[in-house]
Structure formats: C-alpha cells, structure tokens
UniProtKB/TrEMBL annotation:
This is Cysteine--tRNA ligase. Monomer. One of its GO terms (biological process) is cysteinyl-tRNA aminoacylation. A motif ('KMSKS' region) lies at residues 283-287. It comes from the Bacteria. Belongs to the class-I aminoacyl-tRNA synthetase family. Gene3D superfamilies: Cysteine-tRNA ligase, C-terminal anti-codon recognition domain, HUPs.
Length: 464
C-alpha cells in the first residue's frame, strides 16, 4: 500500500497511515448542525476532508465515509448552556426544528455537490439514532462514569485520568477558559464534565424535541451522538476521525472519553483537524457579523470551484486568510488553468508524464500537500511535453484536485471565436489606455452572456 503520511492530532506527530482492515479505510466526518446555512469556514473543513478521502481512494483504499447530521442537542455554548441551536433556528424562521433541519440539510448537500465534495456513503441524523445514544449512556452508567442532578446526566471526567489526551492538558485548560465562560450549573462536579442526556427541566422544560429514556423524557447532548453514530456506521475502533480544529478541545475530547470508557477500546486511530478560515476581523462564526455562505460567493459572480481552488492553495493545517481579493486571484488562476488546458490538442490517453505523476504522488501522500500539488500542475502546463501526455496527466491529477479541469477546459473551447476576438480587441484598447473602448467592448461581451475578468494575462471570459 502507499506511504501516506498524515499528521495525527492524538500523537502530535506525522505518522505513516495504516488501516485496520487491509485495503479498506473507515472515515468519519463530523457533520453540520442544520440550523442555518454552512459558512465558507465550515466548507473549508469539508473540502479538506474530501481531499483526504480522494487521496485514500487514489492510494487504492476502499473508503467507507460516514457522517452525522446534528438536528438536536447542540447548544449555543459548548459548556452545556444556552439554547439548542435547532430551536434558535426554528424561532428565527417561525418553523418547527425538524422543518429547519430538513431545509438546511438539503442546502448543505447542495453546497458540497457544487464544491465537488464527494458525498458520504453513510449519513445518519442524531434524531434517528436516539436508541444507540441511550445504549452508550446506559453502559457508562453501569460502569459508574456518570452522575445526575435535576437537569441532566453528566459524564464524570475525573474518572478518566487521560481525559485531556487529544488536546494536551495545557491546551485543554486554555480552551475551556476561553470558550465556556462561567459555569452556570453549579451541580457539575468538575468544570469539564459534560451532559450526556438533558431532562425536560429548567431552561429545557419546553424543549420541543424529546424522547423517552430509562431516566425520563429528555434529549441527548451533542457529543454522544457522534460516539453512537460513528460506532454504528463504522464500528469501533475505526481508522480516521476528522473535523475542524475547534472540535479538539471539547467535542472530540468528549467523544473519546465516552466511547473509550464505554467500550474499553480506542474510538479512532487517526484524528485529523482542519485549520480555520480567517477574515480580517478574525475567525468566521455564525454568531458574529462576518457570515459568508457559498451563495454569497456565487452571487458575487465567482464559481464554487474557485473557492475550492483557494482552499487547495493553503495547507489544511495552516490558517487561511480569506479576502475577496484572494478569491478573485483564485478565480483568475483557475480560469487561466482551464484556458491553458483548452489549448492542448487531442484527447487524454493512458500514458502520462511519468515524472510529474510520481512527483504528484509524493506531494499528496506527504500529509496532503495540496499547495505543492497545485504548483506542480502549473509546472506541468509549462513543460514542453506532447499534449496528449499532458492531458492524461491532468486528468489523473484531477481525481484528487476535483477542479473539473478537463470539463472547464472543454467549456472554454466552446466560447465562440467572435467573443474571443472581442476580448483580444479589448486587450489592445487597454494597452493603449483607451478605456472608453475597453468599457464599450466589455458591455458588448457581457450582453452576449459572458462574464469579463481582468487578469495579469489579459481579459478572461467565462460563460455566465
Ligand atoms: Zn462530531
């Protein structure tokens, strides 16, 4: 099998990936809380996870990719406080939580499709796995990892000496301090203890979604759903668990605590966490004013794959600064790449530029180094090699890049000669600083149903 190297948060090291079952890989991705649209920061994580899955498939693994959908129990704060996000969404739109869930789940999968993110093979909603969640809580209760008060059943973190092993103790302290603020439920024995099951009491007295349980009517906490769903869909242990870095300190730490205490074996062998997308104002969050969705991106005339290209241009473990200028540069780069590929003659065959294929192999297997894989793609385009070989190499690369490179190039070929002629005339006008003519030609091109973009390489046109 391959020499795939991945940075494992659990060991804080780059390790060679080996799977539990030969030739197969089980991958679990924390899914969305479906109370609102995903923002592009969330989507960056799903693009990273898609690259991981595509590299595993490229390496010949038969991947089973599983995901949960959070439609109950995810509170506004990770510290077991605040409203259920689903009820926040329901109130905002005057609908029932499950109506909200359905709407945003559909929108989420539409976003993934337009970003060429391969959809998970198995998806399970938290509300469809209540029985499995109750089972784990029962086991934890039997093993004396729980206690309860009038509001909830809690996991007692003091029973688990290596509770903070995923984040490292220091980081965990810092994160808890920064994120949760004041502990409201003073009956909690330790600040890190977390709710497994909420009762219909206190602020949750009127919680709309609730189910019977051995402890009375209530609803599950957020963390227990991923423990139950990953185990049901992939077994325990499974190979790789992924999510955003914001999941390390609380959500994933708690998943590990529950699952490993209940079953006495690891939950997953590899833990991979994608870094944040940053705006000038800081991290993107639904609670702040800086909430950009994929629809915002499309409404501004960008293609969804330009956003994918932008994400690939940064390493998944590096923070990525988002700006409209950087997205603009990504769109230009992608359109230019399509243009260069469209100039190649013939059609792809089996034979490839072998040295480039080997180099690509090396970069993607070295902790998913997509920035280097992208620059390799550009170097290939500049290489004096037969067009046919280049085309088949590009096709091969696109299995992992997922940028529709041949399709995008074919669409550029369909741009009529007279439109291309107009673009060339516009470049001449711009070179002479004749901006009146350049503007007039731009309008003419746009009226034919094409979008005009100015790049370092001159006018770029794209079908609207
Ligand atoms: Zn999760």
């Amino acid at each position: 099998m391959s020499g795939l190297k991945l940075y494992n948060t659990l060991s804080r090291k780059i390790e060679t990936f080996t799977s539990i079952a030969k030739g197969r890989a089980g991958l679990y991705t924390c899914g969305p809380t479906v109370y609102n649209f995903a923002h592009i920061g969330n989507l960056r994580t799903y693009i990273f996870e898609d690259v991981l899955r595509r590299v595993l498939e490229y390496d010949g693994y038969q991947v089973t990719h599983a995901m949960n959908i959070t439609d109950v129990g995810h509170l506004v704060s990770d510290a077991d406080e605040g409203e259920d996000k689903m009820e926040v969404g329901a109130k905002r739109e005057g609908k029932l939580p499950l109506e909200i869930a359905k709407k945003y789940e559909t929108a989420f999968f539409e976003d993934l499709k337009s970003l060429n993110v391969e959809l998970p093979h198995k998806v399970l909603r938290a509300t469809d796995a209540i029985k499995e969640q109750i089972e784990i809580i029962k086991t934890l209760e039997q093993k004396r990892f729980t206690y309860k008060d009038g509001y909830a059943i809690y996991f007692d973190t003091s029973k688990l000496p290596d509770y903070g092993k995923l984040s490292g103790q220091k980081l965990s302290d810092k994160k808890t301090g920064a994120r949760s603020g004041v502990i409201v439920d003073t009956k909690k024995r330790n600040p890190a203890d977390f709710a497994l099951w909420f009762f219909l009491a206190g602020r949750y007295k009127n919680h709309i979604l609730h189910w019977p349980s051995p402890w009375g009517e209530g609803f599950p906490g957020w963390h227990i759903e991923c423990s139950a769903i990953s185990r049901k869909l992939l077994g325990q242990p499974f190979d790789i668990h992924t999510g955003g870095v914001d999941h390390i300190g609380t959500h994933h730490t708690n998943e590990i605590a529950q699952s490993e205490s209940a079953l006495g074996k690891p939950l997953a062998n590899f833990w991979l966490h994608g870094e944040f997308l940053l705006l000038k104002e800081g991290k993107m969050a639904k609670s702040g004013g800086s909430f950009i969705t994929l629809k915002t991106v499309l409404d501004k005339g960008f293609s969804p794959l330009a956003y994918r290209y932008l994400c690939l241009s940064a390493h998944w473990r590096s923070k990525l600064n988002f700006s409209w200028e950087s997205l603009d540069a990504a769109q230009n780069a992608l359109d230019n790449l399509y243009e260069k590929i469209s100039e190649l003659e013939g059609s792809p065959s089996i034979a490839m530029c072998d040295d480039y294929a080997r180099a690509f192999d090396r970069e993607i297997n070295r902790d998913l180094d997509m920035p280097r894989a992208l620059s390799l793609t550009w170097r290939l385009m500049k290489k004096p090699n037969p067009d046919k070989l280049k085309l088949s190499t590009i096709k091969h690369f696109d299995r992992v890049l997922g940028l529709d490179l041949l399709k995008g190039a074919a669409e550029r070929k369909k741009i009529p000669a007279e439109i291309k002629e107009l673009a060339a005339r516009r470049d001449e006008a711009r070179a002479k600083k004749d901006f009146a003519s350049s503007d007039r030609i731009r309008k003419e091109i746009e009226s034919e149903g094409f979008q005009v973009r100015d790049t370092e390489d001159g006018t770029l046109i794209r079908k609207k």
